[in-house]
Amino acid sequence: MAEKILVVEDESKIARFLELELKHEGYEVELAFDGRDGLEKALKDDIALVILDLMLPMLSGIEVLRRIRKTSDVPVILLTAKDDVSDKVVGLDSGANDYVTKPFAIEELLARIRVALKRNGSGRRKAEEEVLTAGELVLNKTSHKVTYGDEEIPLSKKEYDLLEYMMENSGIVLTREKLIEKVWGYEYYGDTNVTDVYIRYLRAKIDQKYNRSYIRTVRGVGYIFEEKD
Ligand code: CA
Questions:
Q1: 15 C-alpha vs ligand 1 centroid, how far in Å?
Q2: Which of 72, 110, 168, 187 is the most exposed, having the fewest neighbouring CB atoms within 10 Å of its CB?
Q3: Contact predicate 52/78, CB 8 Å
Q4: d(CA 54, ligand 1 centre) in Å
């Protein structure tokens, strides 16, 4: 059965364009033209993914997202205005899976949709697994050991915690604030630059040592862990 995608976008030209392109890709499409209608439709069981514009009448995209996340983990991809970094940060912190900046190339959006749908399907299984893998990199959640091929990578506790959180959220852009909250905890009051320092440690021990690029910097926003083919 075709997966149904909800497009919440008040600019009807963009909404119709997306509807056409998505249908062409084999998805079913539902449209909503304001935040209130979008929220109502997003909570329906048959919606596999939501494309959510941030600038909406009735309810803002961020507000819609926050209310969706109270009850649902349906994947949400935001459409954000060009260069508005704060929108992206707030959106990702509010539980968006990804974002695309307007004006966007449809191929980019389609690729992100495929990733988000795939991740949602496999994400539920992952919770029961005790091992996270990315190519040759293997993180064992039971023994807290990390290996690359046959070699064990010695990590401090914080390095391990950071890597585990990033691998669990592989493919998702993580803001510094999110990393602080999840890895260092709410009680941490220091500078968010500490994340940059620990990312550097991980890169030295993994990316540089094994000539890989698992950890990518998203300028002005944060970091993303990716497994590239
Ligand atoms: Ca809009």
A1: 10
A2: 187
A3: yes
A4: 6
